[in-house]
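Support case: user asked for a sample of complex input and structure output to validate their parser. Sending the pair below.
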Amino acid sequence: MCHGAFMNNISEHSRRCRSSKRADRGSTRSLIIDAAGRVFAEKGFAKTTTREICQKAGVNSAAVNYYFGSKEGLYDEVLVEAHRQIISLDQMKTIMEDSAMSDEDKLRFVFSLVFRTAANASGLWGIKVLMRELAFPSAEFPRSLKDEILPKAKLMRGLMGRLVNAPADSVKAAHAAFLVMMPCAYLLLFSEKIRSSILPELAYREEMVRSMHAYTMAGLSALRG
Amino acid sequence: MCHGAFMNNISEHSRRCRSSKRADRGSTRSLIIDAAGRVFAEKGFAKTTTREICQKAGVNSAAVNYYFGSKEGLYDEVLVEAHRQIISLDQMKTIMEDSAMSDEDKLRFVFSLVFRTAANASGLWGIKVLMRELAFPSAEFPRSLKDEILPKAKLMRGLMGRLVNAPADSVKAAHAAFLVMMPCAYLLLFSEKIRSSILPELAYREEMVRSMHAYTMAGLSALRG
DNA sequence: AAAAAATTAAAACATATGTTTGAAATTGAC
DNA sequence: GTCAATTTCAAACATATGTTTTAATTTTTT
């Protein structure tokens, strides 16, 4: 009766560092999170079944409820892991507060991070899960994640404000943030099937980064003046 | 046994113009499509139950299968109706081929159409359903609708090509189309809940149209040169 | 008005799916 | 090696939901 559902609070570190003898390459728990991430990214929460996750992970169907209590509990953990995959708040802070870097270079850094992520989309399921949440937030969208997204958004708005020469909380900065970030968001979210049929010429290449950067800087300059 | 599932082919006009004596304000069929559109727009296909649709429409649960054969059949009809709500291919052709209008004005027209739609989003469920399909196409995404979307996309790429002084099927035009249209797409798709928490200053006002237009024209000019 | 057709309604049905159960197997501590 | 704790497994369970059925009701036709 002492089931694993209550183990979510136990430090993950201790579980990870324990030499796993049952499963050679990664504990059952990690196997489930990874399989779940891939399936959730592809199908979304509602269309995903725990049976498919367990099958892909090669574990028994009862494992989800044993380790995570419920499908929702698993999804929560997947969201946490998704954030880890992209960029931590600390990393982002470091870059945004780096005085040796121009604001234009910071923007370029964001674009290349986006492109790297988009190009790696098959391996990194995290960004797809998070973008799904942004477009269609699930009931399970936890406050703790909002607390992670909002600070990052605030950093971006600071950058945008400086680029259009306006306060971070001004309407102008909001417009700039929206106009700059939405193509990024869609680049990460857009269904590959649809994109390739509507815009087959659009490839994730250096050429595209240059176009985005040129287009964005010119647009921001127009907002500024 | 002569059930309504086979009536989908009968002209809707005859059904509409027939004096409806059972249901005063709109036939059962239309009631279902409208209720379904609202629920599908809000929750997506998977999370929507036919029982909720029927309850919202005030009809019996069996009505969906009676009139549309299945939940998928109903969804197909909702997609057809969604296209009708926005703009027809013919209307769009007329505008795009209007030689009395500058390309810049045509772009402005697109933006105001987008804004009108976004501001009316509560009443018009069609755009939300279509945007969901663009981001996460369902298995039911019918070829006939692709045949409606692709021609419209081609018209937009023609406009974009002229604006950046490049052929419609060039990489440059594809980049332009992507960079210009993605903020529009997201404006229509973005979860209101999330938008208002991340960008509370962003309202659907004339001010925003002006920002978008200025930003976009400057960006396109940069792509051109 | 009578008969036929179409529609509506309530309930039953079948299936998919999240979850629980209880036993078997494995692991780690002594 | 023994024993308790943990993990795995197969099966069962409960529920939600798309669908079907059958009869009652309404509408249309003649």
